[in-house]
Amino acid sequence: MAVPVAKIAVSAATYWIDRPYDYRIPDELAARAKPGMRVYVPFSQGNRRSEGIILALSDHSDYEKLKPVQTLLDEEPVLDEEQIKLALFMRERFFCTVYDAVKAILPAGLWLNDEGEQRTRDKTVEMARLCIPPEDAAQIASQKRMRSRQQANLLELLCSFSALPSRDLLRHTGASRPSLKALVKAELAELYQQEVYRRPEIYVGQTEPLPVLNAGQQEAFEGLSDLAGSGKAGAALLFGVTGSGKTSVYIHLIAQQLQRGRAAILLVPEIALTPQMLQTFSSHFGNEVAVLHSSLSAGERYDEWKRIRSGKARLVIGTRSAVFAPCRNLGLIIIDEEQEETYKSENAPRYHARDIAKYRCARADCLLLMGSATPDIVSRYAAETGRYAYFRLENRYNEQELPAVQIVDMKRELRRGNGGSISSVLRDEIAANLERGEQSILFINRRGAHKLVSCGDCGYTYRCPRCSVSLTYHSANSRLICHYCGFSRRVDESCPDCGGTLKYIGVGTQMVETELHELFPEIGIMRMDTDTVTPAGSHEALFKRFREENIPVMVGTQMVTKGLNFENVTLVGVLSADQSLYAGDYRAGERTFSLITQVVGRSGRGQKPGRAVIQTYTPDNETIRQAAQQDYDAFYSSELSLRRLQNLPPFRDILTLTASGLEERPVVQACRYARERLEELLGPRSGADLLGPTPMAVVRVNNRYRYRVILNGKNNAATRAAIAQTVSECNTDKRFRGVSVFADSDPLD
Q: Could you read off the pLDDT of 384-407 as tens digits, one per residue?
């Protein structure tokens, strides 16, 4: 039928019915409707109003009866053609709806509330300016001085500026608003609204010259520069030991792209790293820098998005979601600490920022650069096999040696009567640092005071009533808290089961802080974990205090392990190095090596030599010894051999189907059906191995049971199509009512 038709992705469509729906465009909207605009449309049998986005326009449809588009919600498209294609790519690759992808691409400030109004509006400021030439205004001001001094002052100040905010104008002159209104009425001045951007604080001082590169950095820069200037899509891995100066190479590459009129995106894994990176890069690039991360207000994120889209900011720095920044003429994407898990989204759409970056670089014919001191095994293998270009920085920028590392056997400490979390070796090293006025960082990857509270008589432990985990004791508020669902309760004075004595088992950041106060009662100690950095910007304030006030010791979780550069930190202590080693995941060794290597690298980054102490109950463990020696090549070789034997990434891909529900039995049944259906759809020739149903490590979270089917094979179009069909069937089968099934590729747990 020949009518104006819009192909629309509808937000109310679930994954198993998600597709472009045809809607008729009414005559009064036809001239304004464009791809990338949001609309309201009637959806489903009840014609419930739903938000949608126009993917394409057509002059015909295969359907005779079409529902009409009700309203256009945008004056101009919020997505361009490339972003629409990106949303479609995400749907196919990450098992999400198109509208899930659209919501990931757009800032939250653009989303609509229940009344159909944009949640964040443009911020404007009232401005004042002359309506007559400054010479005439100065003459009129001299005539008015005797009978209307305030109006004269206003005119004289406006003569010196093209425009001023009316509030500043009144404050500087001491004039009243009626005086300003009188000038407007006399058509001597005018008031108008001017849009202003809500922006996070950045460095606004004198622009600094680019850092000087040493020979190793210069060699890496020249090789990467050739790739970036080739006009072809490419990917490169930059390996550099901690403190080797990868950031300086990034700065030179970005400066080169900006000179060529192109834009760049720099991704960092943690919000805590953004302020430090922002200060470094804004000192070189000033207002060219925009920042995107979740600690910004909705208004700040929206305005930064507008600055990027308009081309006023051509360098974007941010966390995972910054990979969607609407840069024009993109020339470079850099992923710093590319091995970090924070680049993987655990909510729909379950994307990895590296995959989005690859897609964008392929479409824009530009370079993707991944940098790390401990690259992801898959990335390093891609470099070894020639899929990525590979560059190395072998030495620290200041030519300092890597920290001297001691491994402490905590079993020996126990035999000597030391049952605390701080060994005698680490205690002596901290004391030596205190005498020299140097700072120390202690890392333990568990917040709270104790892992669990248990009865010594009957073995009773406090468990979350909604999750299959023990409650963690927090000494700050004397409460037991579930780190999965947030449930909390007070601890009893004695065992609620038998009345026996309760014992506090395991150590977290709060307990380490308490022990340090007992050992060194006079010193300042700072704790960095999610309990202390919850408010927006608090991490930045804490790091600033640590540096400027020279606080002797910082205790923290993994947010202190990477990217931080404190020149006076000369000692790092790793507590419970075994904690992540036996997590039951095939990446446990890789995570442990990376965490230890990264945190040890925080020591000795200035002119003073660094030291590190690694505390472990398994001192002969190969991974811990390789991390102590900062020997990534040895770790990579042994880990790759192990994965080859087990047919794990990078040799095969892992995809999962996860089912969750309030009742355990239908969840398991859904997983069994999913496995059988996948075996049928894929067939024996696919070579895929299917495992499950298997309970997840924490089988119940917030009263929902979670089971999984694991596919070990190739992540190709045929495999994804089979998984998508299976997900759709499981979610629409009445036998599994109340069970939710979703798919993921390379999940974190």
A: 999 999 999 988 776 778 889 999
Going by the DSSP 8-state scheme, the letter that residue 685 receives in this structure is G
And the tokens for 630? 């900062």
What's the rounded Cα separation, in Å, for the pair 383 and 492?
56
Residue 81 CA to residue 54 CA, distance in Å, equals: 11
* DSSP secondary structure, 665-681, as one string: HHHHHHHHHHHHHHHHH
Q: What is the pTM of this model?
A: 0.89
Q: Output phi, psi for 571, to 5 deg.
A: -140, 135
Structure tokens at 506: 């395991």
Helix axes 81-94 and 353-364, enclosed angle (nearest 10): 140
Alpha-carbon dihedral angle through residues 577, 580, 586, 589, given to the nearest 10 degrees: -20
- Local confidence band at 297 (pLDDT 50, 70, 90 cut-offs): confident
Per-position DSSP letters for 376-416, written without gaps between them: -HHHHHHHHTTSSEEEEE-S-TT-PPPPEEEEEEHHHHHHT
Q: What secondary structure letter does DSSP report for 11?
A: T
Non-local CB neighbours of 154 within 8 Å, separated by 6+ positions: 169, 173, 175, 179, 180, 183, 189
Write the CB contacts of 68 (distance below 8 Å, at least 6 apart in sequence).
Answer: 23, 24, 25, 26, 41, 42
564 CB-near residues (< 8 Å, 6+ apart): 272, 273, 276, 543, 602
Whole-number Å distance between alpha carbons of 661 and 675: 18
How far is 83 from 724, CA to CA, in rounded Å?
A: 23
Cis peptide before 695 (omega within 30 of 0): no
Rounded-to-integer distance, Cα 226 and Cα 130, Å: 52
Q: Where are the alpha helices (DSSP H) in 520-658?
A: 538-548, 588-600, 622-628, 632-646
Residue 533 pairs in a beta bridge with: none
Give the DSSP H/E element, type plus range, for residue 104: helix 98-105
Contacts of 630 (CB under 8 A, 6+ apart): 241, 242, 402, 405, 597, 600, 601
Question: What is d(CA 311, CA 288) in angstroms, rounded to the nearest whole number?
Answer: 9
Residues 6+ apart with CB under 8 A from 7: 20, 21, 22, 54, 55, 56, 57, 58
150 or 297: which leads in pLDDT: 150
pLDDT tens-digit profile of 192-219? 988 878 877 665 667 788 999 999 999 9
- Strand pairing of 289-292 and 315-318? parallel
What does the block give as tokens for 614? 């690694």
- Scored b (16 or more CB within 10 A) or e, 152-161 reads bbbbbbbeee
